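[SOLVED] Predicted holo structure with zinc ion

Edit: marking solved, answer below. Original request kept for reference. I posted the sequence and ligand SMILES and asked for the 3D complex as structure tokens.
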Amino acid sequence: MLIYRKNFVIIKMNYDRIFDKSSDIMTLVNMNEILKMAMQKGCAIGAFNVVDINSLHAVINSAVRLKSPVIISVAEIHFQYIDVEELAPVIKAAADKAPIPLALHLDHGQSLEAVMKAVQCGFTSIMFDGSQLPLEENIAKTAEIVRYAHAAGISVEGELGHVGGAEGQLEDQSGDSLFTDPSEASLFVKKTRVDALAVAVGSAHGVYKRKPRLDFNRLKKIKDSTRIPLVLHGGSGIPDNDIKKSIECGICKINVYTELSQNAVGSVRKKLAEYSGISYPELMRTARRAMENVVAEKIEIFGSKNFV
Ligand SMILES: [Zn+2]
């Protein structure tokens, strides 16, 4: 635990230096600000994973057009494709120009290194995913990260139970999902003081092979026992009515990635089939428009349109 303490002192110093809180230049906000508004309004905010500048622009363009707050997520699993230290300043510059509240969030941080890197890069929110650890270890690690993240003004999402599958892949059939227990959730939130909780109630990462069935009763019980914003992972491919019902039962943040990836790839494939001599920037624009459509559709369903 000492390692956290030492690193976070350094991070806090860097953070204070990067974000002079007395100035007005920072438009990225802590995720709590956005989720509190969502709870009051009875809607959910989309958290969309970006993997490059093209996907970043797709997310911001649609959120600005529909006047919706938005959460820009970067997943640790995607660090292999992007240099977060280079992308973070670009995200901040884009956020400065956007007239909507945006949070920059680390999705599924599983290593201390990834959490540290995100904080040092100026992320305003992090997810620490200790869902595959034994309960006591998940609580201990999450609580330690929360303490130091909060000292730096950063919100933290934890995960209890386990949302199975893998981002952008076919839904896993190995049964690695583990539903969240409402009484454990209450204990977890009390002991860790997380700002938001990712719950496992029947959704999965990746492409569903069969219609997902969400356990709404469980979701309501978790909401009643925790009273904090709940997060639905694996938001791609869940029927619209189930999404709306999950929001009524306490979901405030919905993660979307697979549909962005699928629609971008599908549009590029179609374009190439029509004309194989297409230029690279034109192809990128095709992919961006496809992703913009997904983001706009989700914002409509989540109910956060015309929010700001
Ligand atoms: Zn997830």
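OP edit: Residues 280-302 form the longest helix (23 residues). Thanks to everyone who chimed in.
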